[in-house]
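Bench notes, afternoon.
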Amino acid sequence: MRPGAVGYSAPMAHIYIYSPSSAVREKAAFRRGVTRLRRLGHEVEIDEAALASSQRFAGDDATRVAAIHRAAASGADVALISRGGYGITRILADIKYKTVARAIERGTQFVGVSDFTAFQSALMARTGAVSWAGPALGADFGTEEEPDDIMLACFDDLLVGQGEGTGWRVPAADVEATSARRLKGIEGATLWGGNLAVLVSLLGTPYLAPPEGGVLFVEDVNEHPYRIERMLTQLLHAGVLAKQKAILLGQFTGYRTVPHDRGFKLATVVDWLRSQVKVPVLTGLPFGHVPTKVLLPVGARVELALSQRDAFLVWGHTVASGSMAHAHDTAHPHDHHH
């Protein structure tokens, strides 16, 4: 049953809201997000510095580090960022990763997107702990219109421990391109990735440890296709892409092509990428700076399969309990069952 349907009842959870990156400028969206979560029956705890501001940041560096550690100590079911932006890369050396990992072992799920990629990458490199690429409070729960049904359903699955996988419809061109690469099924690969620009900024640091034989997913916003290609080129030349079993391209939004591109577009970048790597490249993953976003377990072992035009990414018992048969079909939102 979808959120908003008659009889729908979200699982009650303790959600801790904190701000590790940019300052919250859209206070109305912040308030709407908190109100919505509470109306869904959740206990929402707001960090003491969630609305702090120092230059463009949500407080100075020490304030934001302390907020992360308070989130880890909160005992909440979910530690949810208020927003992304910029700021986490500045504080990576000061985060107590083992403390965060212990909080995750006790049941606190860390969820976020965009700049949060830096935290997730560092946590994975330092401890191997699993965190979730997913929504942020303001942009996803604090929208003026109703939040996206699929995002809400995936978030609820996380709360009840049933977030076991996701599925989406890929373009026909993906099937043709992938058939030559013989994607019959990938098992036991580590899922990792997030915002492309943030990942590239971590190359050569202790906070990025690309797994051998992983499944890499990337997305970005406000980046022209040539800049997306340039960042992918950096990952290629650094030897990262050759070590992966598959590359998943999420949503790339907020850019405009110009006349002198002369036909150079995102599809051009995808074609170029496929010419450079031997592994399957699938597009259309429902994740990025978009309303319809699934939750993805960064650092978890996953299975990836393609059946005709339906792609399935499954993690099952790796990070959650229950049957592995359940997967979100975000390619057909109106047929989405929860």
